């Protein structure tokens, strides 16, 4: 940690502050994806967006408002819930041209503006089509923000704590989920449209805060250099590092980024096709690694608990399912904190492998108990306990891990495109789970119930094996050094031992603070 501390000092506390500030984008992501679940059950909301029903039998969700029962059909429920993921999927894909034209900071600001419009529409409308439009627009904003924030952070963060910094983004997501659960809990009893307009409308405030804050932070220096705006890049770098434009720190870092950029440029244009070429820099493997890590993150089944947990616990006969849902939110936030430490301590590979094994063991136990002891009190206790342990395992490992990895894998030239593909994969699988799970678990279809845990057991185990064979170790090196590592064409399990060659250019990861801002090359 000592070396890390020296590195933080060398990079300047302002870098840290800026990276933690933009993590707030994760809060929008978490809040919006979890908020709708609570809103759909609010009786005033149902009285406006649902339809009158004699007794609520056969409805996906029903509720009584002023003596009348209202119903929401399964079709409308899945449409309203899953539309966010469709917006996010396209939002993530459109992130590449936006990040490359408007910049990373510009992209976060665009995302907050789009998101605010989506939230405003959702707050104002009182019809299902209007709501759908609002969900898609907000989803687009969430998709954009979900790739821009880790991109900005990884381009600004000191290598030694880059994983920890990007994990703050995940921490923000989890806080967003928890806050939305609590706000829903706090407003659901209000006997007017305020019950749902407050939790939805609050999102505009969050979006404006992120937008306004971005006005005061520098653009990613790496983006400015990429655009050829070297002077602006140098100034942004000097602001970030808290050192003068002529300081050795700024000169050295700038030289390394520019040298790498020149080399990338000499290889020609950057197209989507280049993301899938298996040339000297192993781009095909890197792109697929990002796409698959996000797929395996979703296939852990974590969103089964966040999207359908309340119903799942209810059906399993567990008392106070709402409270247990809030408990999952609390464990999710709490366990992300050790994750911030572990991602640097263990390195990306061990971090992901241990987490996947831990999650699969939890799910195996849940599945076995569901088959052998279903319905008993002790079975319910085991079910709740191991579900909480599963969420804890996710929060401490794969939650942050997938975002950290995709923010480190790609060369500057292709970062926008490759990161947007990986992020779109996250949202695609997110949508698949949201859409398909009811068909797998519900009595009238697959009727798997709690036994779905066996699927998550299998997918997490596959995630562990895949990580061993395909995930490189990206910890501690600068993004430019990582490019060199990929060119060395090592097997993923050999990468942890890779040491960057001593280059002519002094790199950020190979420097130490001697005294207030001075840098010294390591022997
Ligand atoms: C995932 C989300 C999930 C959240 C839970 C994120 O990393 O991408 O799908 O809901 O973690 O904390």
UniProtKB/TrEMBL annotation:
Keyword Acetylation: no
Catalytic activity: myo-inositol(out) + H(+)(out) = myo-inositol(in) + H(+)(in)
Subcellular localization(s) per the UniProt record: Membrane
Highest taxon above the source species: Eukaryota
Organism: Leucosporidium creatinivorum
UniProt key word Manganese: no
Record-level Gene Ontology MF annotations: carbohydrate:proton symporter activity
Name of the protein this chain belongs to: General substrate transporter
Entries under InterPro entries matching the protein: MFS_dom, MFS_sugar_transport-like, MFS_Sugar_Transporters, MFS_trans_sf, Sugar/inositol_transpt, Sugar_transporter_CS
Family in the record: Belongs to the major facilitator superfamily. Sugar transporter (TC 2.A.1.1) family.
Cellular component annotations (GO), alphabetically ordered: membrane
Every Major facilitator superfamily (MFS) profile domain range: 18-475
TM spans (from-to): 12-31, 79-99, 106-125, 131-152, 164-183, 195-217, 287-310, 322-344, 351-371, 383-406, 418-440, 452-471
Gene3D superfamilies (UniProt xref): MFS general substrate transporter like domains
Main localization category: membrane
